[in-house]
Design a protein that fits this description.
Blueprint: H1 2-10, E1 18-25, E2 28-33, E3 48-51, E4 55-62, E5 71-73, E6 84-86, H2 90-97, E7 104-110, E8 113-120, E9 154-160, E10 167-169, E11 178-184
Parallel strand pairs: 1-4, 3-11
Antiparallel strand pairs: 1-2, 4-9, 5-10, 6-9, 7-8, 10-11
Bound molecules: copper (II) ion.
Copper (II) ion (CU) binds next to loops.
C-alpha cells in the first residue's frame, strides 16, 4: 500500500477525500458532487462510480422537507450494513458544494463528527489517511440511516466501496429515490489509470 500511495501522489491527484454530495428530493436523488471524474449533470439518481476498497464520505441534504434516509443495497435489494453515520453541519455541505469538482476536499473527522473542511489545490491535505482509516468498528455500522425530515438538514455517512454494492436508495421512497452503484477495481493498484 505504501508504494501505491507514492504513485498516486506523483500523479498529482487522489489524495483528496472522496466526497459525494447529493440532494434528497422525493422525485429523485440529485447529484451535486459525484465520485471520480463524473460530472454532476443534473439528472436524477446519478450512477455512483466507485473504486473497491476506497472510503467515501457521502453527504446529502434534504431538499423538500419530506422524510428521507439513505441505504446501500446489494443486487438482491438487501440493505448492506456498511454505513458509518457522521454528523455534519449544513454549512460544511454548502462549502463543499461551492467547490469545483477537481478541487481537493479534506475533512476533519473527530468522534463521529465532521468538524471542519479544507478545500483547495493539491498539496497540504494528506496526513497518510490517519483521520479516517481503520477506526470503523462493525458495531457502529448501520444498514440504513435515520429518517431526516427537516428541509436543509444534512446527513453524512462514510463507507468503503465493495463489489456487492449495487444501488443506493431512500428506503421511504424506493421507487423514485434509487440509483445505481457501480464498483470497479479491487486492489489492482497503480497504473490502470490511463483511460483518458
Ligand atoms: Cu425519500
Amino acid at each position: 500500500m505504501a508504494g501505491v500511495n507514492a504513485t498516486v501522489l506523483a500523479q498529482g491527484q487522489s489524495q483528496n477525500e472522496e466526497v459525494i454530495l447529493l440532494g434528497g428530493y422525493t422525485r429523485g436523488w440529485q447529484g451535486y458532487r459525484l465520485p471520480g471524474s463524473a460530472e454532476a449533470s443534473g439528472t436524477a439518481n446519478p450512477t455512483l462510480n466507485l473504486q473497491a476498497g476506497t472510503t467515501y464520505t457521502l453527504m446529502w441534504q434534504n431538499g423538500d422537507g419530506v422524510g428521507h434516509n439513505f441505504a446501500i443495497q446489494d443486487s438482491q435489494g438487501n440493505n448492506l450494513q456498511v454505513l458509518e453515520p457522521l454528523t455534519v453541519q449544513a454549512d460544511t455541505f454548502s462549502q463543499i458544494n461551492e467547490s469545483q469538482a477537481g478541487q481537493n476536499v479534506s475533512l476533519d473527522v473527530s468522534s463521529g463528527n465532521i468538524t471542519g473542511v479544507s478545500i483547495g489545490d493539491s498539496g497540504n491535505a494528506t496526513g497518510g489517511g490517519n483521520a479516517t482509516g481503520g477506526q470503523q468498528s462493525t458495531e457502529s455500522l448501520v444498514a440504513q440511516t435515520e429518517i431526516l425530515s427537516e428541509q436543509g438538514a444534512v446527513q453524512a455517512v462514510q463507507f468503503t466501496a465493495s463489489p456487492e454494492m449495487a444501488q443506493y436508495i431512500c428506503v421511504v421512497h424506493p421507487n423514485t429515490m434509487v440509483g445505481d452503484v457501480a464498483v470497479s477495481g479491487g486492489g489492482s493498484g497503480g497504473s490502470n489509470n490511463s483511460s483518458m
